[in-house]
């Protein structure tokens, strides 16, 4: 059965989409970003929230996550995907990389308005989301990288090295000691 090489989770603007893509390229495996899948099938995330509400977005997201986790390669999730209990159960069987970032680092990264949950509240809203979700992120993480003050290339190389070094260690990729 095909299983993802790794799944990237973490708060909005931690770098999941950008770093995940780079890790996949280094390893020569496919890359799937669940938000991109949703946008391709259903249109812009901000429009989905505005027209149908967050619960509808979460249902579309769960389906995109389920499909992505059934395939190979590196999978980057949206920041709120881990709120879904079925997704939490799925992630317990996989190598999960948690990307974190400080509020100072993220403040510069969240301009542009494509994240509806941050559209009015900015960095304060981000900090509230992170406080609520941190227990879930930490419970699911196999390993954590902080992206606040290191370049994408360096972080991606380290994550790819780590994944390559554990490949085939016990067949699950999840590892015994973490
Ligand atoms: N390590 C990093 N250093 C500086 N900027 C970064 C870093 N990682 C990501 N970014 C930038 O932050 C923004 C959000 O990155 P993105 O990959 O979309 O995050 P996420 O998918 O976690 O929301 C992008 O503009 C990206 O280029
Ligand atoms: O944290 C969240 O609830 C969300 C994060 C976004 O993805 P990124 O984490 O890739 O920004 C996107 O899925 C949507 O705007 C909701
Ligand atoms: Mg993303």
From TrEMBL:
Q: Its pathway? A: Metabolic intermediate biosynthesis; chorismate biosynthesis; chorismate from D-erythrose 4-phosphate and phosphoenolpyruvate: step 5/7
| Annotated binding of substrate, by residue | 35, 58, 79, 133
Which prosthetic group or cofactor does it need? Mg(2+)
Q: Name one GO molecular function term.
A: kinase activity
Q: Which UniProt keywords apply?
A: Amino-acid biosynthesis, Aromatic amino acid biosynthesis, ATP-binding, Cytoplasm, Kinase, Magnesium, Metal-binding, Nucleotide-binding, Transferase
User: Where along the chain is ATP bound?
Assistant: 13-18, 115, 150
Location (main, coarse): cytoplasm
Could you say which residues bind Mg(2+) here? 17
- Report the locations given in the UniProt record: Cytoplasm
* Enzyme Commission code(s) on record: 2.7.1.71
**Cofactor binding remark:** Binds 1 Mg(2+) ion per subunit.
**Function as written in the Swiss-Prot or TrEMBL entry:** Catalyzes the specific phosphorylation of the 3-hydroxyl group of shikimic acid using ATP as a cosubstrate.
Among PANTHER family, the record links this protein to: SHIKIMATE KINASE (PTHR21087), SHIKIMATE KINASE 1, CHLOROPLASTIC (PTHR21087:SF16)
**Family affiliation:** Belongs to the shikimate kinase family.
Under the subunit heading, UniProt states: Monomer.
Q: What is this protein called?
A: Shikimate kinase
Tell me which species this is from.
Answer: Lysobacter korlensis
- What gene is this protein a product of? aroK
